[in-house]
């Protein structure tokens, strides 16, 4: 549930614009994560712009459209490159008048970005306003697109209708055979594997589950089930709970309806009572099914012996969709036809799982196109060697097309998330209009750490790296060479290019009449390109920033880690670990134990070689390395990232004193014969607890991607 309100300042601005016949331009959407925000209550009309510390993302409204003559919707797409943060507040903002026009609060939820080995989520945020004659007020005349409309209520109705249909058949609870029954063996209580329905929600336990039981009182064993869905699908969530009190249906904090049914009880003396049978006598039970089967079996010739009314549906489902993650492994002894046959044998419905096509090191001679068509409902990986998951100009896996057609890899009508990592895709022959990759009406194609290249320096035959047709495509950290066009997207599509590099013999990075977003793009020599690099001269690729250290006033940064000595798992951050190893910035646990100042480096774990500790830069400032020692007297003996303790330069103080005759004090003594002064006397203490310069507190971050 979410609650929204027009702010007092927003209402005043609307009235002012209507009075003066001015256009109201709501151009920004603001997202925040506010501590202790009551998302169940309607926000105050006096709500102001969140503080800079609470704002997690602010962007231009992707699109605005009319729902009707008095309603408008503003939309923002937070794609998989945006994150990581949480959201519980959304606002519409007019930057022209510096006014927060409307606000909406909602249950706190996470937005996370795609990293090297983690799939990010994409969110579409819509905010609708009802204002009289809104088109004239805002100048918006186009209708809202279908993706701007909230179909959630309709989808929930569909899910509920299906649940009720199951309920009409199976009642409040129904279990096949011994599924979810409680058994005891040597004092251990176990729930049997099987399938059942809880208030119309299908539940399946793949393996027996042990129960934790308290011996001194009666124990109730319940199953708790609910439907959890969004715009992309719905799944049954369930758990088994053991309690010493009776439970019932409830609604959780996210407004999800939970159905709770008793599986059985275990008495203090260990006696088990099976409570799986439903009290509803109207459902179609197993006995009803068996009686109907017996009736039909009076004519055995009319019915095959293999008829299985209880198992056939499950077998049909498993035959037409993945039921677990699956990996296909290809080596270069296989022909394109053999590889294609394995691909075609996999169900198109990935069932929410991941299908990985793993190519072994070597050169694959493809005499025909590898076609991946119609996959949906999961993740599709096309991987080379994990050692090549970084920017480079060559890869251990090479898919080289030599066929009579024109395309090496074809993706068509794929709505699954696609990741193509660490592969060279090209051709070894003079092929007119060669295409390394062609996409046709696909949802999300991510190409990263790849090399796309033509056969030779002769690019007159119009070789293409990618032809994108009406697909959403991201090309990142890749190398393009010996191609007439790196990306050709004249047929619609949404293209993002991040941190790629173009070789000396590519005529044009792209030709496109559709959307192009480009950042950190390095190019070498294609003077005829219509593309002007954003932000001035940029050379290199996005991975250049791995290991770079920056400061920020926030506690989190996208693609960066806080430098406070925390531990990371090496496998999760391969680029950062490679940077640290190649730069000799890693110290051993023994070295750190002997010298605590080495905390400013990466340090290893004494017992676990899969763990690495980040540098700890709390409370220190930076100083430019001076190998000559001209400005830093220790500079000749220092290395990058080394620690230098605080100090003050050698100096003297003066002390005034007087003496007469043979007098003496407790710590300054006079010579009675010569009236000379010897000994020491401390000055009074002054100052703080450390020597420091003027400073401002910030956080240090290091980029891992």
Give structural notes.
With 705 residues, this protein is mainly β. It is built from eight helices and 49 strands. The protein has an eight-stranded parallel beta sheet with strand order 20-21-24-27-30-33-36-39, covered by helices on one side. β20, α6 and β21 (354-359) form a beta-alpha-beta unit.
Work out the strand percent.
35-45%
Low-confidence stretches: 302-318, 520-543, 662-669
End-to-end gap:
36 Å
Our Rg estimate from Cα atoms comes to 34 Å
Shape estimate: globular
Helix content bin: 10-25%
Largest sheet, strands/sense/barrel: 8 strands, parallel
Task: Classify the secondary structure makeup into a structural class.
Answer: mainly beta
Number of strands: 49
Mean pLDDT: 79
Short description, anyone?
The chain has 705 residues and is mainly beta.
Write the layout of secondary structure elements.
Elements: E1 3-6, H1 8-19, E2 28-32, E3 55-60, E4 63-68, E5 71-78, E6 85-94, E7 99-111, E8 123-130, H2 134-138, H3 152-170, E9 173-175, E10 182-185, E11 188-191, E12 194-198, E13 201-205, E14 209-211, E15 219-230, E16 233-243, E17 250-251, E18 257-266, E19 272-274, H4 286-296, H5 312-320, E20 326-330, H6 336-344, E21 354-359, E22 362-366, E23 370-373, E24 379-383, E25 397-401, E26 407-412, E27 417-421, E28 424-427, E29 435-440, E30 444-448, E31 451-453, E32 464-469, E33 472-476, E34 479-481, E35 485-489, E36 494-498, E37 501-502, E38 508-512, E39 515-519, E40 522-523, E41 549-552, E42 560-562, E43 567-569, H7 574-582, E44 586-587, H8 589-594, E45 602-604, E46 611-613, E47 668-670, E48 677-679, E49 699-703
Parallel strand pairs: 20-21, 21-24, 22-25, 23-26, 24-27, 25-28, 26-29, 27-30, 28-31, 29-32, 30-33, 31-34, 32-35, 33-36, 34-37, 35-38, 36-39, 37-40, 44-45
Antiparallel strand pairs: 1-7, 2-3, 2-6, 4-5, 5-8, 6-7, 9-12, 10-11, 11-14, 12-13, 15-16, 15-18, 17-18, 18-19, 41-49, 42-49, 43-46, 45-46, 47-48
């Amino acid at each position: 549930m979410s609650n929204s309100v027009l702010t007092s300042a927003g209402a005043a601005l609307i009235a002012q614009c209507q009075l003066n016949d001015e256009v109201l331009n709501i151009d920004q959407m603001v997202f925040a994560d506010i501590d202790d925000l009551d998302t169940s209550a309607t926000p105050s009309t006096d709500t102001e712009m969140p503080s800079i510390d609470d704002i997690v993302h602010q962007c231009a409204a992707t699109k605005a459209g009319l729902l009707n003559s008095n309603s408008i919707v503003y939309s923002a797409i937070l794609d998989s490159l945006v994150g990581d943060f949480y959201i519980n507040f959304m606002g519409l903002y007019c930057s022209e008048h510096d006014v927060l026009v409307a606000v909406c609060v909602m249950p706190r939820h996470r937005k996370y970005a795609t990293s090297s080995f983690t799939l990010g989520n994409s969110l579409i945020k819509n905010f609708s306003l009802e204002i009289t004659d809104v088109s004239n007020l805002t100048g918006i005349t186009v209708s809202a697109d279908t993706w701007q409309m909230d179909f959630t209520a309709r989808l929930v109705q569909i899910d509920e209708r299906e649940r009720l249909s199951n309920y009409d058949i199976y009642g409040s609870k129904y279990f096949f055979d011994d599924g979810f029954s409680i058994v005891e063996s040597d004092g251990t209580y176990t729930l049997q594997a099987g399938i059942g329905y809880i208030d119309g929600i299908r539940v399946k336990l793949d393996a027996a589950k042990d129960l934790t039981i308290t011996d001194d009182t009666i124990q109730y064993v319940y199953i708790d089930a609910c439907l959890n869905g969004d715009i992309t699908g719905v799944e049954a969530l369930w758990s088994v709970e053991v309690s010493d009190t009776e439970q019932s249906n409830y609604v959780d904090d996210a407004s999800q309806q939970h159905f709770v049914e008793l599986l059985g009880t275990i008495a203090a003396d260990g006696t088990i009572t099976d409570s799986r049978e439903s009290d509803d006598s109207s459902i179609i039970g197993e006995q009803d099914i068996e009686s109907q089967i017996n009736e039909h079996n009076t004519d055995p010739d009319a019915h095959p012996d293999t008829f299985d009314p209880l198992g056939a549906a499950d077998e049909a489902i498993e035959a037409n969709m993945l039921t677990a993650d699956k990996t296909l492994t290809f080596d270069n002894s296989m022909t394109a036809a053999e590889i294609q046959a394995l691909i075609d044998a996999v169900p198109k419905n990935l069932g929410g799982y991941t299908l990985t096509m793993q190519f072994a090191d070597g050169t694959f001679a493809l005499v025909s196109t590898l076609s991946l068509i119609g996959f949906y409902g999961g993740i599709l990986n096309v991987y080379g060697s994990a050692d090549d998951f970084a920017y480079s100009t060559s890869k251990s896996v090479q898919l080289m097309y030599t066929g009579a057609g024109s395309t090496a890899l074809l993706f068509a009508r794929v709505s699954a998330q696609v990741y193509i990592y660490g592969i060279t895709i090209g051709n070894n022959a003079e092929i007119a209009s060669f295409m390394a990759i062609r996409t046709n009406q696909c949802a999300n194609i991510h190409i990263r750490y790849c090399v796309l290249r033509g056969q030779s320096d002769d690019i007159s035959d119009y070789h293409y790296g990618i032809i994108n047709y009406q697909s959403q495509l991201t090309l990142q950290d890749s190398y393009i060479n010996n191609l007439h066009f790196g990306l050709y997207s004249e047929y619609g599509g949404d293209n993002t290019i991040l941190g790629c590099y173009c070789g000396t013999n590519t005529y044009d990075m792209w030709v496109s009449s559709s959307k192009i977003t480009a950042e950190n793009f390095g190019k070498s020599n294609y003077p005829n390109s219509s593309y002007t690099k954003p932000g001035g001269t940029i050379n290199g690729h996005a991975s250049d920033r791995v290991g770079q250290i920056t400061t920020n006033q926030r506690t989190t940064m996208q693609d960066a880690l806080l430098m406070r000595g925390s531990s990371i798992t090496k496998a999760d951050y391969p680029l950062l670990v490679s940077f640290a190893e190649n730069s000799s910035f890693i110290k051993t646990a023994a070295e750190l134990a002997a010298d605590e100042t080495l905390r400013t480096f990466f340090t290893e774990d004494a017992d676990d070689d899969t763990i690495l500790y980040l540098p700890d830069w709390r409370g220190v400032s930076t100083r430019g390395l001076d190998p000559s020692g001209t400005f830093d007297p220790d500079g000749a003996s220092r290395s990058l990232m080394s620690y230098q303790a605080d100090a003050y330069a050698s100096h003297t103080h003066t002390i005034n004193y007087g003496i007469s005759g043979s007098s003496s004090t407790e710590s300054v003594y006079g010579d009675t014969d010569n009236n000379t002064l010897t000994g020491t006397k401390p000055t009074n203490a002054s100052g703080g607890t450390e020597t420091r310069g003027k400073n401002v507190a910030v956080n240090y971050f290091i980029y891992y991607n």
